[in-house]
User: What shape does this take?
Amino acid sequence: MTELPLIGEAAAADAPGARSLAGAKIGVVTFPGTLDDRDAARAVRLAGGTAVPLWHADTALGDVDAVVIPGGFSYGDYLRAGAIARFAPLMSRIIDAANSDARLPVLGICNGFQILTESHLLPGSMIKNDHLKFMCRDQVLRVENSNTAWTLDYEAGQEITVPLKNQDGQYIADEKVLDALEAEGRVVFRYVGFNPNGSRRDIAGISNAAGNVVGLMPHPEHAVEVGFGPESLDGIGGSDTDGLGFFTSVLNKIVGGSK
Amino acid sequence: MTTETTKKFNIDTVENAAKTPDTELPWAELGLKQNEFDEVVKVLGRRPTGAELAMYSVMWSEHCSYKSSKNHLRQFGDKVTEEMKKDMLVGIGENAGVTNLGDGWAVTFKIESHNSPSFVEPYQGAATGIGGIVRDIISMGARPVAVMDPLRFGAIDHPDTARVMHGAVAGIGGYGNSLGLPNIGGEMVFDSVYQGNPLVNALAVGVMRHEDIRLANASGKGNKVVLFGARTGGDGIGGASVLASESFDDTKPSKRPAVQVGDPFAEKVLIECCLELFKGSLVEGIQDLGAAGISCATSELASNGDGGMEVELTSVLLRDPTLTPGEILMSESQERMMAVVTPENIAAFEAVMDKWAVEYSWLGEVTDTGRLIITWDGEVIVDVDPRTVAHDGPVYDRPYARPEWQDAVQADSFTGSVQDAGRPSAPAELAAAVTELISSPNMCSKDWITNQYDRYVGGNTALAFPDDAGVVRVDEETGLGVALATDANGRYTYLDPYHGAQLALAEAYRNVATSGAVPMAVSDCLNFGSPEDPDVMWQLAEAIRGLSDACMVLGIPVTGGNVSLYNQTGTTPIHPSPVVAVLGKLDDVARRTPSGWREDGQAIYLLGTTAAELDGSEWANLRGHLGGQPPKVDLAAERALGEILINASRDGMVDSAHDLSEGGLAAALVESSLRYGVGARIALQDVLDRDGVDLFTALFSETQGRAIVGVPRSEEVRFKDMCTARGFAHVRIGVVDAASGQLEINGVDTLSLDALREAHEATLPKYFG
Assistant: This one.
């Protein structure tokens, strides 16, 4: 039983919702070759949280409450996207923390998603886009599962627009794995209207069984600020900030204020 | 058994050179002319060593010395007024000029060519073009924040164009996307004059705090010289292979790429590593290694400094151990930097290198002798005054004269020509003409290209292609940002080089102002044919004169750039193509104006008047005609229009603005409608009555100094009053119609936006898959 303080607000203690958003720390990993780390940190800040830079060679995670592995080309990705990053000292800590009882929330975006599959935190793999070119576009996604750590602030079935930009974005897995992902509700995002890379079953993002680890190819951190995100083609208002929900979801979960 | 630590070559030392004055040297194979070689001997007072010959030959090349253009380029420095100087922090001559943005911020930008490598090997040529220009920006102490790439290729349906297109676009994407720099714009022009000589230009822009500005000089006796980044290899050596005779060893790799090979990951790490060095103030001077590699970096650093430099060449880390001293001096291996570090900062410098796992080697130190001395295992192989290598190269006053054919070309107007037969006039014909125009190679959607570039990374891109200018935020607190546009029109410049170059500047200026930014500075990439051809030399001289005159009128200085000559196929030169980049400033990028309208019922105004100017136009080009006079230049009108667009943006009087240039009003109306998929109803009768032109001319003429803007109803009176007060022609030509999904122009059959979009976007995929 928690004792109430004699002076001050009750909420200042450790009751649910007690922590301020700014007190929630989200680690943003930088590998040599990471590109979207500043953007991920900005997204965390705009969502109200505190971004903590993490370096690939670090051997401890510190006291972060969640981790974002951003996009880019870790170590140049000349071998296979994410193949070397998976062996970084920090990745071992992240893998342990994601699998621990505490279920550290982990979001892998683009190269981060590739690193999560290479780390076996998520099943399947990414190969070159079916059209063999790099593609940058504003992509419509459907949120299929709004119960993961990173999608709590969305409605299931909600369509959002976020930028997509990659060369190796074609998600593949064998039929058994795909069936299992579908059956367990672990397909978190699906491409709508246009499959930009040939991904199996239009899959844009998936989660682990516990829902704390989510990976996706599109970039929610580039849809968090009015005037700097994607534009809707109908010209009526933007969908500039459709990606912000990823970051508010996890922050609310951390501070205990989520739905 | 002994271990060889240093390769043994038949080293041509300075001592040996003095003793053997009559030794034959391959100076002609290295590209030097007889008079130039004689000058080297005179400067040194003896014959050069092989290594010295390598340095002089490459540093005195056209590419590095600007020997044919220098006398003309002086005008960019001479024609500078006090107004133009007020925001210039670093002018021409450094790696890139620096302009004051206010609030302690500075911006640096530069455009360069990588034309011939991109024809030989399009992927690597275009990729290393981006790499080189980005290193120029880092060398100034700046964080690069965006890139742009103006491209000019051969005819769209020529079989070789696809090779260049696929390679260059993939190269720009593959390299640029890996650096974390958004690609915010550029150009794509197809013309058979570029068939055997495509133009691949690259622009980079970077920002820094005033106190972080770095210059390329080596000063302070006893300071250490360090080379860091990628290892030195045999790529891009070019002519130096003729010096291979100095090697005892004939087991060298036989085939080496003449075009440099890029490693974007190494460059990305180099960027971060350099920024950390700047942050800690750990370098005194810094220079990137581009053309002429170590030859250029050592001689320029030493020449710009206050003393001399001594360097031991065997300390250079190699990826090909068989390289000779001359080859090491000339190698153009990418992703390398040279810096000058005080002895106290060595440990801190090394810690930064270790953190980013960047290789480095200490080559020598700054001296007070005024000489650049390079040794090989202790033996002196170069002993020169660095100024004679880097700055006092030959300068030529090449003969030039107005070509005999120029008058005939200018007399051949499109109007009334054979190609002008059957000019569209009926509503159905005009609708077909609009569709033909916007699906033509030069006017079609460039999404196929720009969708292969990352325009989002960094999170500061406020506008990108297809808007008139690319806009990036510099300061997240205040919204301070910069706008950039590049433009050139080779056909206009062919018809009249003086005015053609001014038209390129005027368009880039207009594009920047259209986005709402105040134009501040210019960088130019002058792509021309052989300066040894008096016709071409005249084009170059006229273009530089025109550009420098126009800069004075517009009040913005040229802060840097590049000259690319010998762009020709056989003896046929390209169209003279001065690509002009203009940089502008926005106090708050939230105020930037996009090129398309969105809100139903907004009034659409045409600013400026329209004359019958079809010579050199896209329409004439589509009909296979090139002759006559390009559109008139009116720089006072451009400045007045710019001020209106900037004020209207700042005060919220316009929601959209799009400049009129290639393709005229027809192209602009379609582009503004397709930008957000919102239609409009247009009636041009007032324009026809006022300007005395017919509907076809109103739609397809390329008269300059015009723009179309979308004005919210609440702002219409204020906007009109502003234009009237400034005496600038303005007329309401229509209204935004969000529901229709059509572009309706009185006198033209209605065009559905879906059909326009399909036509606009189908062209590049049709040719390039």
Summary: The longest helix of chain B spans residues 534-554. The CA atoms of residues 689 and 695 of chain B lie 10 Å apart. The interface with chain A takes residues 170, 173-174, 177-180, 263-266, 268-269, 272, 356-357, 450-462, 473, 476, 589-590, 596, 598, 676-678, 738 of chain B (CB under 8 Å). The domain at 14-68+212-390 of chain B is CATH 3.90.650.10 (Phosphoribosyl-aminoimidazole Synthetase; Chain A, domain 2).
